[in-house]
Amino acid sequence: MHLNRGIVARISAGDVPRGEDVIDCDGRYLIPGLWDEHVHMTQWAMHSNRINLSAARSASEAATIIEGFVAGAGTEVTVVGVGFRDALWGDQPTLAMLDGATGEQPTALISHDLHSVWLNTAAARRYCVDVDASGLLREEPAFVLIRELGRLPDAVIDAWINQAAQAAAARGVVGVVDLEMTWNRDPWLRRIGAGFDSLRVDAGVYPADLERAVREGMRTGMDVPGGNGLLRTGPLKVLIDGSLNTRTAYCVDPYPFGGHGLLTVSETDLLALLERARATYFLPAVHAIGDAANKIALDAFERVGIGGRIEHAQFVRREDFARFGRLGVVASVQPLHALDDRDAAEYNWPGRTDRAFPLRSLLNAGASLVLGSDAPVAPLDPWAAMSAATTRSSLDGRAPWHPQEAITRQQALDASTRGRGKVRLGSAADLVLIDEDPLTASNAVFASMPVAATLIDGRFTYDSVGLETAFASNHS
Questions:
Q1: What is the mean pLDDT of residues 298-311?
Q2: 230, 261 in Cβ contact below 8 A?
Q3: Is-above-0.85 flag for pTM?
Q4: Which of 184, 229, 264, 351 has the most crowded Cβ, counting Cβ within 10 A?
C-alpha cells in the first residue's frame, strides 16, 4: 500500500517503485482505523480516577466499599464512586444506609449507566439538591449533578483525557463521537491547541446549546476552525427515555414492579427538535432504549422526513426493525451492553429478550449499524465491542445470549470503520496494523486483538513495535 500526503494513493502487490520510502510491517494485517460512535469522553477519563463500585453485589456492599475510602478524605472534597449496578440488587439504596457509611463526608455514587446518582445528606446539602429516603437522583437531576461533579480544573481533566485517548489509540481507535453532556466544542479546541492529536473527534451538541451552535455557524459534519482537521461538529443528541438499569427505559409493557419507565421528551417536543435539526443541518441522534421510545423516535423521524441515528436501540418491536432502513435511521448500538445487561433484561423484559439488542435482525431488515461503547458504561475498546457483537458472549464459559442475533466479523468491522470495512483507494490513511487476521483469528484473540500501530492521515498515533523509529533511523 502506498501513502501520499495522508491519503491511500495506491494499493498494489509486488515491487516497490524506485525512490519510495518503505516501512516493513513484517507480514501484519492492515485495516481501516476504528471509530467508537458513542462515548462520553470526560466521564470516561474521570472514571479510572474514581472509586470503582462495579463489583458491589448489593447496596450494603457498595456502602461498605465506599466506607473504606471516606476516612481522611477531608470534607472539603466530595468522594465519588462509579459503576454501581442496582437493577438486580436484593436490597435497595437508602439515604440512611449511605449516611451511616459516610457520615459528614460528602459522597456521590454514579451508576454505571449514568442515569442515577446515589448521594448522602452531606452531598445533597453541598449541591443544594433535594433527595427522598432512597438518596437517589434519576435522569435529568442526576445529569445535572454529574456535570457539577465533573467541574475539575481544566489541566486535570485534559491530562486524564490525553491518557484515555492514548489508550484508545493503542486499541486501534482513530476517532470518537463524543456525546459529553455539555458545550463540548471549546474544551476540544483548548486541548487541540495544547497539542492533543491522538484522535479525531465529532463533538455532539445538546438541545440546550443548539441555537448557540447555529449562531456560530456549526452543523453536523463541518470541520471546526482551529481544530487542525481533527475536530468536527457532531450530531444533535436528544434523550427521550432513561435506561434499563435505572428502570426508566420507556417500554410498551410494564416492568415487573409496575410502570412503563419515563418518556423524558414529549412527542410534540421531539417533533419540534427534529424539525429544527432539519432546518439547521444537524443530524439528530435520539437516545431510545425501550421499545416504546424506539417507536416514538421512528414515528418522529418519519413525520419530519429526516434521517438520523437512534442511540442504543436496545429493545425494539419486531414491526419496527424494517423502519430503520426505510427511514434512513442508523442504529448506533453498544454490543457490550447486551452482555452487561442480560440478567437485568431477563428480569425486566421476561419472555421478550429475543428482541433485545437485535443486531442481526436489524441488519437483516435493512438497517445500518454503527458500533460504540457508551464509555464509561462500557470500556472504550472496539475489539471488545466487536467480540460481543459476533459471539454474544463474554468468553467466560457462560452460554451465548441469543446467539441468533450475532453478526459476522466483517459486518462488525464495517460497523466500526464507518462502513469502510477494508482499506480503500483514495481514503484518508487512518489505519490500524494488527498481528492477526481479524476474519480468522480465534474468538479469544479477536476480543483482545494485538495492535501494532495506529495512524491518522499516515501519522503514527500509536506504535508498539518501533516501526516509526526504524523508518526514521533508516532515513537519517
A1: 98
A2: no
A3: yes
A4: 184
- 141-161 per-position pLDDT tens digit: 999 999 999 999 999 999 999
For the cut 80, the answer to whether the pLDDT of residue 475 exceeds it is no
Enumerate residues 6+ apart whose C-beta is below 8 A from 402. 353, 354, 356, 357, 392
Is pLDDT of 214 > 90? yes
Spatial contact of 432 and 31, defined as CB atoms under 8 Å apart = yes
State the average pLDDT over residues 215-232.
Answer: 98
Distances in Å between the Cα of 9 and the Cα atoms of 12, 94, 417, 422, 423 are 10, 61, 19, 15, 11
Which residue in the block uniquely carries the three cell numbers 431488515? 365
Cell of 244: 434499563
Sign of the alpha-carbon torsion through 304, 309, 313, 317: positive
Answer yes or no: are the C-beta atoms of 366 and 322 closer than 8 Å.
Answer: yes
Cβ(279)–Cβ(271) below 8 Å: no
| CB 327, CB 365: distance < 8 Å | no
Whole-angstrom distance, CA of residue 163 vs CA of residue 157? 10
Give phi and psi for 93, each to the nearest 5: -60, 140
In DSSP notation, 101-138 reads: HHTTS-EEEEETTSSEEEE-HHHHHHTT----TT-EEE
DSSP character at residue 353: G
Structure-block grid coordinates of residue 72: 481522611
pLDDT at residue number 476 = 44
What burial letters (b/e) apply to 403-424, b meaning 16+ CB within 10 Å?
eebbbebebbbbbbbbebbebe
Q: How many angstroms separate the most distant Cα atoms in the chain?
A: 76
Q: How far apart are the first and last CA of the chain?
A: 23
**Rounded to 10 degrees, what is the CA torsion of 432, 438, 441, 445?**
50
Sign of CA dihedral 248, 82, 45, 121: positive
The CA-atom distances, in angstroms, between 123 and each of 76, 145, 389 are 11, 10, 39
Distances (CA, A) of 416 to 7, 35, 165, 387: 20, 5, 17, 12
Strand partners, 125: none
**CA torsion 57→60→64→69, rounded to 10°?**
90
Beta bridge partners of 175: 35, 200
Alpha carbons 401 and 377: distance in angstroms, whole number:
19
Average pLDDT over residues 274-280: 98
Helix (H) / strand (E) containing 144: helix 140-149
Report the run of H or E that residue 174 belongs to, with start and end: strand 173-178
Pairwise CA distance, residues 2 & 429, whole Å: 10
